Structures are given as structure tokens and as C-alpha cells.
TrEMBL record:
This is Large ribosomal subunit protein bL28. GO terms for molecular function: structural constituent of ribosome. NCBIfam families: L28 (TIGR00009). SUPFAM superfamilies: L28p-like. GO terms for cellular component: ribonucleoprotein complex; ribosome. Belongs to the bacterial ribosomal protein bL28 family. It comes from the Bacteria. Keywords: Ribonucleoprotein, Ribosomal protein. PANTHER family: 50S RIBOSOMAL PROTEIN L28, LARGE RIBOSOMAL SUBUNIT PROTEIN BL28A. GO terms for biological process: translation. It holds the Pfam family Ribosomal_L28. HAMAP family: Ribosomal_bL28 (MF_00373). It comes from Candidatus Uhrbacteria bacterium GW2011_GWF2_46_218.
Length: 79
């Protein structure tokens, strides 16, 4: 199973390196993901999740807006 961001759903994708002669070689495009322990606002407990940098920015935005979200449920869904 690949690591998927619990907020944005970002995961590994495939692409091509293309040289000047137009030769295609496969490459893996990895998102900037990290494993973090974050405070779950719904339960008040720490939850360890795999999250992208964009996902962290989204969570900060949700906290500013006062939005209640449950990280444990997001992690179980796996988007």
C-alpha cells in the first residue's frame, strides 16, 4: 500500500524523463510527505498520520477558521 496524504489524497505517480532526442524513461514523482504526530481536535489525542506539506497548510487554515475535523477518521478512510 502506498503512503497517501490523509488531507489532500496526494500519492506517488508515474511520469517520464524526456531527453533532447525525445527518448522517454520512466520515473517516479513523489509528493513531499512526512510522518507527523498531530493533535486531533475532535478527541484531544495525538494521532500519527502521513501528511503532505500542502496538507499541513490546509490544517493550519482549518484551525484559523475554527473548523472541527477528525484526523483519525480521515486516516481510516485513506481518501
Amino acid at each position: 500500500m502506498t503512503k497517501t496524504c490523509v488531507v489532500t489524497g496526494k500519492k506517488i505517480t508515474m511520469g517520464f524523463n524526456v531527453s533532447h532526442s525525445k527518448r522517454h524513461t520512466k520515473k517516479i514523482l513523489r509528493p513531499n510527505q512526512i510522518k507527523r504526530s498531530l493533535l486531533n481536535p475532535a478527541t484531544g489525542r495525538m494521532v500519527t498520520v502521513v501528511i503532505s506539506s500542502r496538507g499541513l497548510r490546509t490544517l493550519k487554515k482549518w484551525q484559523r477558521e475554527g473548523k472541527i475535523y477528525n484526523l483519525a477518521e480521515m486516516a481510516k478512510k485513506g481518501l
